[in-house]
Amino acid sequence: DAGVIQSPRHEVTEMGQEVTLRCKLISGHNSLFWYRQTMMRGLELLIYFNNNVPIDDSGMPEDRFSAKMPNASFSTLKIQPSEPRDSAVYFCASSSSSTGRAFFGQGTRLTVV
Amino acid sequence: GEDVEQSLFLSVREGDSSVINCTYTDSSSTYLYWYKQEPGAGLQLLTYIFSNMDMKQDQRLTVLLNKKDKHLSLRIADTQTGDSAIYFCAEYTGKLIFGQGTTLQVKP
Predict the structure, then answer these.
(1) Which of A35, B13, B34, B70 could bridge B46 with an S-S bond, Cβ 3.0-4.6 Å?
(2) Each residue's pLDDT tens digit in chain A (113 positions)?
(3) B38-74: pLDDT as tens digits
(4) A48 touches chain B (CB under 8 A)
């Protein structure tokens, strides 16, 4: 298995534009986590899914952020409209819900100018 | 609620042992994890311990869990310069909550 795959690796966009981050889970995993990492706030859990269903989205900063799992192996995190304070590294991770042993993608470094 | 705390920085000399500490608040944690993050990279799962265990050893890594005090530690024996990284502990209660990370600096 290739592991968790995120795309793009880097994204630079202008304020106000829509940004979509993508994540492919490890085959057989049924939990998906989206995290945001910044120097100031560390690693923040934004949202997580079990079996394609969002379980806890309390970490999503505001309505500009949305996440979906259109199928069991793929997820998107969308920011619309983007703002400079959204600049961060966004990670997704997948796991089996029975163990919680999560494996991370390489992250997407988002810069909003 | 869930909260995971770590000290922010640790500096050791090459060849010494490193001990990174972590405290957590949720007693319903089923698994506790240690992750390593090198610059520009994602988080790599290092080791984990099930909540009904008190120790786990994996080569140079030893994890100790004191469930009564909700304290977790990671000991790295014979620390090498390649061990320099940020180390995160995390608790799993259905969701995975991370501490703020401990930067380990290894001096030659």
Answers:
(1) B34
(2) 679 999 999 999 999 999 999 999 999 999 999 999 998 888 999 999 999 999 999 999 889 999 999 999 999 999 999 999 999 999 999 998 777 789 999 999 999 99
(3) 988 889 999 999 988 999 999 999 999 999 999 999 9
(4) yes
Q: Out of A42, A100, A103, whose CB is closest to B92? A: A100
Q: Do A101 and B41 touch (CB under 8 A)?
A: no
| Nearest CB partner across the interface for B48, out of A42, A48, A101 | A101
B97 touches chain A (CB under 8 A): yes
Residue B95 contacts A where some CB pair is shorter than 8 Å: yes
